[in-house]
């Protein structure tokens, strides 16, 4: 039977302890920080339209996105706005349409940027069906255009730093068959109005 050289025991113990740091921080200590913003404070009236809360249950959002911090409203006759926040970013960026726009068939997402500041990268989902969806992701005050690259770039810091909230803004609307993924339509207008009103909330120092 081979045993670890006693001279290396201290090094092995130190490496094992280091590997346990993320688990202790996030699973046991639960280190998180909040910016004080609240999705429920997004105004009911946006872009000249008054929203109505849907009947979506918190349990379904928890199952799909790992959070109960959300709003879902309808605007006008066919616009649906969904906003959710979570310390676990993956459920929010990994095919978020599966729950909000269940049953829709979309092609690959196209990223379009709003020109005026802040330059928001918007994911546009379109296909052969009668619906289109647009969404944006925000981590702190940073907008995410490449979720996987974002995760890899922040992998080490996310392991040892307190978790911050990621916010998903999502709008589903009827498809515009004449304009596809280029000019902003009602969905984009509602999306930007929700983002701007959310960002306008007083942001307290993270702690």
How would you describe the overall organization of this protein?
It is a single chain. It is globular, with a radius of gyration of 20 Å. The longest helix has 21 residues. Strands 1, 2, 3, 4, 5, 6, 7, 8 and 9 form a nine-stranded antiparallel beta sheet that branches. The protein is of the alpha+beta class and 207 residues long. It has one domain. About 9% of the residues have low confidence. It is built from seven helices and nine strands, in the order αββαββααββββααβα. 31% of the residues lie in helices and 25% in strands.
Number of strands: 9
Give the radius of gyration. Answer: 20 Å
**Number of self-contained structural domains:** 1
Average pLDDT figure: 82
How many H/I helical runs? 7
Helices and strands: which structural class? alpha+beta
Order of helices and strands: HEEHEEHHEEEEHHEH
Which spans of ≥5 residues are poorly predicted at pLDDT below 50? 12-19, 21-30
Topology (SSEs and partners):
Blueprint: H1 9-29, E1 45-46, E2 49-53, H2 58-65, E3 70-75, E4 79-86, H3 90-93, H4 97-100, E5 110-113, E6 121-125, E7 131-139, E8 142-144, H5 147-153, H6 155-160, E9 166-174, H7 186-199
Antiparallel strand pairs: 1-2, 2-3, 3-4, 4-9, 5-6, 6-7, 7-8, 7-9
């Amino acid at each position: 039977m081979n045993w670890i050289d006693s001279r290396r025991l201290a090094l092995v113990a130190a490496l094992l302890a280091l590997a346990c740091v993320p688990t202790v921080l996030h699973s046991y200590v639960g280190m998180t920080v909040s910016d004080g913003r609240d999705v429920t404070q997004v105004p009911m009236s946006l872009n000249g339209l008054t929203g109505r809360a849907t009947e979506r249950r918190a349990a379904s959002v928890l199952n799909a996105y790992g959070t109960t911090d959300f709003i879902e409203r309808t605007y006008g006759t066919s616009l649906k706005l969904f906003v959710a926040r979570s310390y676990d970013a993956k459920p929010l960026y990994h095919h978020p349409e599966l729950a909000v726009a269940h049953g829709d068939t979309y092609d690959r997402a196209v990223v379009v940027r709003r020109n005026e500041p802040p330059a928001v990268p918007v994911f546009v989902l379109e296909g052969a069906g009668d619906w289109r969806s647009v969404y944006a992701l925000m981590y702190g005050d940073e907008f995410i255009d490449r979720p996987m690259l974002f995760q890899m770039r922040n992998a080490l810091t996310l392991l040892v730093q307190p978790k911050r909230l990621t916010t998903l803004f999502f709008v589903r609307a009827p498809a515009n068959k004449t304009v596809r993924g280029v000019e902003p339509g009602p969905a984009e207008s509602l999306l930007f109005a929700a983002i701007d009103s959310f960002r306008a909330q007083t942001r307290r120092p993270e702690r």
